[in-house]
Design a protein that fits this description.
Number of domains: 1
Oligomer: single chain
Number of strands: 12
Radius of gyration: 16 Å
Distance between the termini: 25 Å
Number of helices: 3
Helix content: 10-25%
Structural class: alpha+beta
């Protein structure tokens, strides 16, 4: 869908989404926000579906857009304040730093995150985000982010609970982010909820 640039491209990314049948708008939202030296990637799932869920997701995106370079812990706390009075949401945030060649991520609720690592021998290693229980806007757990080194070709996948678990199994990195997102949605969407999957690939890191 787009390449983010800070002098040199950092991420190539794409999103695929499906609204629950009968609803006018999705409660699932996403954000990819570049900032000097990095980029913030977020997927948000407003509780339930329909207009109230969509309003919660928009409130979270607004809070994230205001200060994308902040730490993911600070950003999630900002979302928690912004979502008070809404239906609430669950979300996973990932912040990429070009200077340190790292990705720091954090999840509250059930937006799954997988990091597939590129490998010269064709065998991909993977990391999964540590998800903590809670609802942003109502009650969140103690927040602790995890940081991983990343390199060109490493690929982040974030998916709402409208996507069946196990979507990252057997995925190769030969496909583009757009192809991967479309394939995951087509093969793993449950059909009983809004569904969204975002794929972001590191193009270059400058540590």
């Amino acid at each position: 869908m787009g390449a983010l640039t800070d002098a040199r491209p950092l991420l190539d990314w794409s999103v695929a989404a499906r609204i629950l049948a009968g609803e006018a708008e999705s409660g699932d939202g996403h954000l990819v926000a570049p900032f000097l030296g990095g980029a913030l990637v977020a997927v948000i799932d407003g509780l339930g579906h329909g207009s109230e869920a969509a309003a919660a997701a928009r409130a979270a995106i607004g809070a994230l857009e205001a200060h994308p370079a902040e730490s993911v812990v600070s950003l999630l706390q900002s979302c928690h304040q912004a979502l008070r009075g809404t239906r609430g949401a669950v979300m996973t945030l990932a912040s990429f730093s070009a200077s340190s060649a790292t990705m720091t991520w954090l999840g509250v609720g059930n937006v799954e995150g997988v990091l597939l690592r590129a490998s010269a021998n064709g065998v991909s290693a993977r990391e999964s985000v540590l998800l903590r229980g809670g609802v942003v806007g109502y009650e969140i757990p103690p927040l602790r982010a995890v940081t991983h080194p990343v390199a060109a070709g490493d690929t982040l996948i974030l998916a709402t609970d409208g996507i069946r678990g196990g979507f990252g199994e057997g995925l190769g990195l030969d496909a583009s982010p757009r192809e991967m997102a479309d394939r995951i949605l087509a093969q793993h969407a449950k059909g009983t909820d809004d569904a969204l999957v975002l794929v972001a690939r590191c193009l270059a890191m400058h540590a």
